[in-house]
Amino acid sequence: MGCLLKQGGGLYPRLRVGAVLLAAGEGSRLGKVPKCLLSLQGVPLIKRHMIALSGAGVDEVVVVTGYYHANVEPVVESFPVTVVRNPAPEQGQQSSVRLGLEALTNTLDLVLIMLADQPLLTADDLTELISTFKKRSPGTSIVYPEVNEQRGNPVIFSGELIAQLLASEKKIPCRQFIDDNSSLVHKLITNNDHFVLDIDTLEDVSAFEKRTGWKLTLPVLT
Fold first, then answer.
1. CATH no., domain 17-208
2. pLDDT digits (tens, 9 = 90+) for 73-84
3. pTM exceeds cut of 0.70
4. How far apart are CA 213 and CA 129, in angstroms?
């Protein structure tokens, strides 16, 4: 039998993928330390996310910092990413999302909006989510994972939808927008709890360590 795909590249066209990694938070419920700098097996979570994004073939990454920018930015400076500092992180995640999206180029087909405190998220997980976007239902432009009826992260938006949202010149309330536009959503239904496990409190740290046997180390700020 002859070669099915003479040009290579798979059954789906090559899409340009971007990501906005949100790392601007205060970590107030964790004792006011940056969650993205929690270390798992000696590696800060934000660096693990950089490696996962690279492994998943993401073309362009924007990291949004805010609180603790002096501690966070040196950890990612060795990666080929754009760093945007939110001057008013107290305005909440919505402001960081907009800043991150505005810093991306306008040639992307899809963008992952990603938290920086999901310790088990891997390149394979991101690849699965991106693959789901490629195969999504017609007419949909948002993809997110759902585990046991719990919404997970990251969330993918199509490039076209992001352009529309940015043109509105309003804050981008991702969750509220998704709730109000369910017809645009295609879900990745999975039992992979990497998508729903994140760290917000010291109790979360303890629960993670009991479950996995791996230690999460709090950062020492300078």
1. 3.90.550.10
2. 999 999 999 999
3. yes
4. 27
